[in-house]
Design goal:
Blueprint lengths: L8 E6 L2 E6 L2 E9 L7 E6 L2 E9 L3 E10 L4 E10 L6 H19 L1
Antiparallel strand pairs: 1-2, 2-3, 3-7, 4-5, 5-6, 6-7
């Protein structure tokens, strides 16, 4: 990818959800209810948690994994993991990228 982000570490909160950047890896909490589970490729299961492949990509990021959690009421995407394609210096910009990720992922799971 050619971008040196190895020294970057940030953690911010947005609506009680943690957004974490370590190098070019972005990890975030989500609460998206999954309505279309058939399209998700499960990579690994542990208890009531599944790790699924998510291939959602644009110029800023590639979402590579999702963590699926099950409750009594819903199955939902509780976390996403993405690779950032460029450095995002401002917290506000990171929040906007996160909101765009949620929109893109929602198209796949709902």
């Amino acid at each position: 990818m050619g971008v040196n982000l190895s020294n970057q570490f940030r953690k911010i909160l947005l609506d009680n959800k943690e957004l974490v950047v370590i190098g070019n890896i972005f990890y975030a909490d989500t609460e998206l209810i999954i309505k279309n589970q058939e399209n998700l490729k499960v990579l690994h299961n542990v208890n009531n948690i599944s790790y699924v492949e998510l291939n959602v990509e644009n110029n800023d990021y590639k979402i590579v994994r999702g963590i699926v959690c099950k409750s009594r009421i819903h199955t939902y995407l509780c976390n996403i993991v993405a690779e950032l394609k460029k450095e995002i210096a401002e917290d506000e910009q990171l929040k906007q990228v996160y909101l765009k990720m949620l929109e893109d992922v929602a198209k796949v799971i709902t």
